[in-house]
C-alpha cells in the first residue's frame, strides 16, 4: 500500500510539472493571429486560401486523419510545390510572406504545430475514453440457504408411549464458507518468511559451531 501511494504521488507531481512546462511553452494565439494577418493575409484572405481561423480548423482536421504533420502535408499538398514535410511547406509559405522576420516565421511555425499536437492529444483521449466505456455486468449472488427436512418417525403403538413421540429435525447440508484467498496468501507468505529466518539462523549456528565453538555455550 505504501509503495502504491508513493507511486501515485510521483505520477501526479510529474503530470503537474509536465503540464506547467507545456503551459510555459504554448505559443500565444493572439500574437500568431496578428503575424498571420499582417504577413499572410494577402493570400490567406478566405477567398484565395483559408484565413487564420480556416487554417487553424484545417490543421485540426488533419489530427483526425493523420499521425503527423509531415504525413498530412505529404498527402494534402501533393500538387503544391511537391512539399514532402511540414518544414518544407512552411519554408515555401515563407517565400510568399513579404517582410516576415525569422522570429515571426518561427512563431507561426510553432503555433500551427502546437494546434496539431493539441488536437491529436484530444482525439487520442476521446478514443481511449470510448474504448474504456464498457457495459458493466453485475452478477447477483443469491444467498445460500440451508434447507432442512423434518422426518417424523413411524408412530408406534399407542400403548408404548404415554407422551406424544418427539419430532426429529435433520439438517440436509450446511453452508460451507469459502476460504479467503487474500488471508491464505498472507498466511503462506508469513510462514515462508519465518521458514527463511529459521533456516538462516540455523545456518549461522552451524557456522559458529564449526569455526567458533567457544561462542556456543556447552550443555555441561
Please give a structural write-up:
- There is one protein chain.
- With 220 residues, the protein is mainly α.
- Among the domains are: 28-125, no CATH class; 191-220.
- The chain has helices spanning 2-25, 29-39, 52-62, 69-76, 86-96, 102-132, 181-211, and strands at 148-151, 168-171.
Our Rg estimate from Cα atoms comes to 40 Å
The class by helix and strand makeup works out as mainly alpha
Helix content: 55-70%
Mean pLDDT across all amino acids: 74
Strand/helix succession: HHHHHHEEH
Strand content: under 5%
- What is the CA–CA distance across the termini? 51 Å
In oligomeric terms, what are we looking at?
single chain
User: Total number of helical segments?
Assistant: 7
* Dominant shape: elongated
* Poorly predicted sequence stretches spanning 5 or more consecutive residues: 1-7, 9-21, 135-140, 172-176
The count of strands amounts to 2
* Biggest sheet character: 2 strands, antiparallel
Amino acid at each position: 500500500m505504501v509503495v502504491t501511494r508513493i507511486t501515485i504521488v510521483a505520477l501526479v507531481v510529474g503530470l503537474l510539472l509536465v503540464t506547467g512546462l507545456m503551459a510555459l511553452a504554448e505559443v500565444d494565439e493572439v500574437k500568431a493571429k496578428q503575424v498571420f494577418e499582417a504577413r499572410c493575409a494577402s493570400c490567406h484572405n478566405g477567398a484565395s486560401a483559408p484565413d487564420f481561423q480556416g487554417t487553424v480548423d484545417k490543421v485540426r482536421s488533419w489530427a483526425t486523419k493523420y499521425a503527423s504533420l509531415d504525413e498530412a502535408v505529404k498527402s494534402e499538398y501533393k500538387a503544391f510545390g511537391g512539399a514532402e514535410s511540414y518544414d518544407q511547406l512552411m519554408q515555401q509559405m515563407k517565400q510568399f510572406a513579404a517582410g516576415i522576420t525569422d522570429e515571426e516565421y518561427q512563431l507561426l511555425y510553432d503555433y500551427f504545430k502546437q494546434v496539431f499536437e493539441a488536437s491529436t492529444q484530444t482525439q487520442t483521449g476521446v478514443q481511449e475514453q470510448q474504448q474504456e466505456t464498457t457495459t458493466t455486468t453485475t452478477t447477483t449472488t443469491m444467498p445460500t440457504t440451508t434447507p432442512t427436512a423434518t422426518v417424523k418417525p413411524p408412530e408406534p403403538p399407542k400403548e408404548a408411549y404415554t407422551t406424544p413421540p418427539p419430532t426429529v429435525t435433520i439438517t440436509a447440508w450446511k453452508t460451507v464458507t469459502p476460504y479467503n484467498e487474500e488471508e491464505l496468501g498472507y498466511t503462506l507468505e508469513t510462514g515462508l518468511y519465518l521458514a527463511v529466518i529459521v533456516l538462516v539462523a540455523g545456518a549461522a549456528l552451524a557456522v559458529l559451531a564449526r569455526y567458533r565453538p567457544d561462542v556456543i555455550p556447552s550443555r555441561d
